[in-house]
Amino acid sequence: MAAATSAARCKGKGVALLLLLVLLAGTTGTSSAQLCTSFYSHSCPGVYDAVRSVLQAAIAREQRMGASILRLFFHDCFVQLGGPSWDVKVGRRDSRTASFSGANNNIPPPTSGLANLTSLFAAQGLSQKDMVALSGAHTIGLARCTNFRAHIYNDTNIDGSFARSRQSVCPRTSGFGDNNLAHLDCQTPTVFENNYYKNLVCKKGLLHSDQELFNGGSTDAQVQSYVSSKGAFFAHFVTGMIKMGDITPLTGSNGEIRKNCRRIN
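C-alpha cells predicted for Plant heme peroxidase family profile domain-containing protein (265 residues):
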C-alpha cells in the first residue's frame, strides 16, 4: 500500500516531464555530483513504475512514441517493442542555455557521410563502434520525405525497387510532399531488432547517412556482425546509450528543472 501510494504521488508530481524524457530530472531529488540509477530511490521510489505505465499507454496509442523518446534522449545528450533493457542513470538537469542552432551543429544531418558521422560522434566522446550501434535505433520510427529525398533520387548505393517504392510517397520536387513519412525500417517498423542492419546490407537504408554505414567503408564489418547476431547489437546498443547518457550532464545545482520542457524557466 505504501509503495502504491508513493507511486501515485510521484506520478502526479512529475510524470508529465518524465514522459517526455525519462532520463532527465523529475520534480524532486537531492543534489548529486553525478548521475546514478538510484537517484530517486528515497525521494520518489515509485517513479519508474509510474512512468512505465504512462509510456506503455502512450505507445499503445501511437507506436511512433517509442522512437520519439529515443530521439529525444539522443538530442539531449521503453517500450513494448522488444529490444534490450538496462538501468537508466537519472538526475540530469535541463540546460538554461539550450540552443536550437547549437543542437543542429552537433547532431549529424541525414546527408552526412561516414567521415562526418564519425567525427561528430567522436566530438561527444563516442567511438565509431558506438555510432554504428546507436544508429540501430533507426529500427523503429519514421523519417520525413525532405530528409531522404536526395538519397532515393540521386544516390547510386540504393536498391532500385526500394528507391522507386519510396519515390511513390516522396515526389522529386522540393515543396511537394516534404512532410510525407516513410518507415526507417521497412521490414518490421514497430519491432526493435536487427533488421535495420539487414536492410543496409541489401542497400535499403532510407537515409543517406544510414547507408553510409554499409558502403564499402570501415564500418561494414560491424554492420555484418549485427546482421549475424542480434545479441551483439543489443549489447553494444546498451553500452552506447549508457555512454551517451553520461555526456556532460548537469547535476546538483547546475541547470534547472523546467516547468515547461520547451523553454527555460
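The chain is about 45% helix and 0% strand.
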